[in-house]
Write a structure and sequence with these properties.
The chain is built from eight helices and 20 strands. By secondary structure, it is of the alpha+beta class. The chain has two domains: 224 residues, Rossmann fold (3-Layer(aba) Sandwich), CATH 3.40.50; 107 residues, Nucleic acid-binding proteins (OB fold (Dihydrolipoamide Acetyltransferase, E2P), Beta Barrel), CATH 2.40.50.
């Protein structure tokens, strides 16, 4: 296996000797050319992790390696300006009295003045703003300001780009458009990047791999599809989107659930908590039920699909189907599984996690 560009090993940070750690035993690698995201609710430690990588904070324990070079660890602490790491913050921090070109050139501290300007122009061309080099930041749109900040970070040609909630100040449509432009730019340049975000959709669509963080620790690392469809923990299952939780009795690769028998994603025995995404369920006629029959209590048409709320034995479940299937509130239906249920790492009791659909995930969870 090739050596990763960045290796974060058992990183812990305390802001006082007797204080609880803000991050604890955080470990992950970033490959050359990989886009990696750290996703989690506000206050979970993701920005502190980024600041330790950048060198703005010194970790209490653990090691940060860049291409096998120790940036932080028992051997010492390399200052931020010597790490060859670029960072784009949530606030773009552009100088209003300087032109776009001058703002970008300000971040380049190698070569002659002419070489610095050439490097700045190359970076502006990369982000598609070469024709706006004489403008002042206050005369740009939010998306253009974000790209100027990105160009300023790219101009010194860092080994690694750190993105700290860089799209959060943009409106929804511009945010989606800009992040896809930035992703394509990073891929075209073969650059490695770490994005910090609380936005689940952003992390899933932007990343090659992502880490889900909670309470200063990482719950799970994987490709977006794996983390979304095969969450390891109750927190990951709930934080990445709506799901249905069922406390079940497992025997091997099957389980008895409140919706009837289902297959499991792995072999286990005893009482387990399983997760089933709404798109992995479908509705059937009552006569085809494998378990209790439910009643449709809500229907939301979304164009390409429909979300149903189905009440069954006192609990409510979410089911996403395509729009070829049509049921109305009051219809009797059976809920059937299309994919194996995912067994979660949890010691939850029925009182703690009642079966049914979870609420919308919150960034402050």
């Amino acid at each position: 296996m090739s050596t990763p560009l960045l290796s974060v090993q058992h990183l812990t940070k305390r802001f006082a000797p007797d204080a609880a750690p803000v991050i604890h035993d955080v470990s992950f690698d970033v490959a050359d050319g990989e886009i990696f995201s750290i996703l989690g609710p506000s206050g979970c430690g993701k920005t502190t992790t980024l600041r330790c990588i950048a060198g703005f904070e010194q970790a209490t324990e653990g090691t940060v390696l860049m291409q096998r070079r120790t940036l932080s660890g028992p051997g010492g602490h390399v200052p931020p300006e010597q790490r060859e790491v670029g960072i784009v913050f949530q606030e773009y921090a552009l100088f209003p009295h300087l032109s776009v070109l001058e703002n970008v050139a300000f971040g380049v501290d190698v070569g002659t003045k002419a070489q610095q300007v050439d490097r700045a122009r190359e970076a502006l061309d990369m982000v598609g703003l070469g024709n706006l080099e004489d403008r002042r930041p206050q005369h740009l749109s939010g998306g253009q300001q974000q790209r100027v900040a990105l160009a300023r970070t790219l101009a010194p040609e860092p080994n690694l780009l750190l993105l700290d909630e860089p799209f959060s100040n943009l409106d929804a449509l511009l945010r989606e458009e800009t992040r896809q432009e930035v992703r394509q730019l990073l891929k075209d340049k073969g650059m490695s990047a770490i994005l910090v975000t609380h936005d689940q959709e952003e992390a899933l669509s932007f990343s090659d791999r992502l880490a889900v963080m909670r309470g200063g620790q990482i719950d799970q690392v994987g490709v977006p599809e794996e983390v979304y469809y095969r969450p390891r923990t109750l927190f990951v299952a709930q934080f990445l989107g709506r799901t249905n939780l069922l406390l079940s009795h497992a025997a091997g690769r099957e389980a008895d659930t409140p919706l009837g028998p289902v297959k499991l994603d792995r072999e286990t025995n005893g009482t387990v908590l399983v997760s089933m995404r709404p798109e992995h369920l479908t509705l059937a006629a009552p006569e085809n039920a494998d378990g209790p029959v439910g009643t449709v209590v809500g229907r939301a048409f979304k164009g390409h699909d429909i979300t149903y709320r189905v009440r069954c034995d006192g609990s409510e479940y979410l089911v996403h189907t395509d729009n070829r299937m049509s049921h109305e509130p009051g219809d009797a239906v059976a809920i059937r599984s299309l994919e194996p249920a995912v067994v979660l790492e949890s010691r939850a009791t029925p009182a703690e996690v009642p079966s049914g659909a979870t609420p919308e995930p919150s960034a402050s969870a």
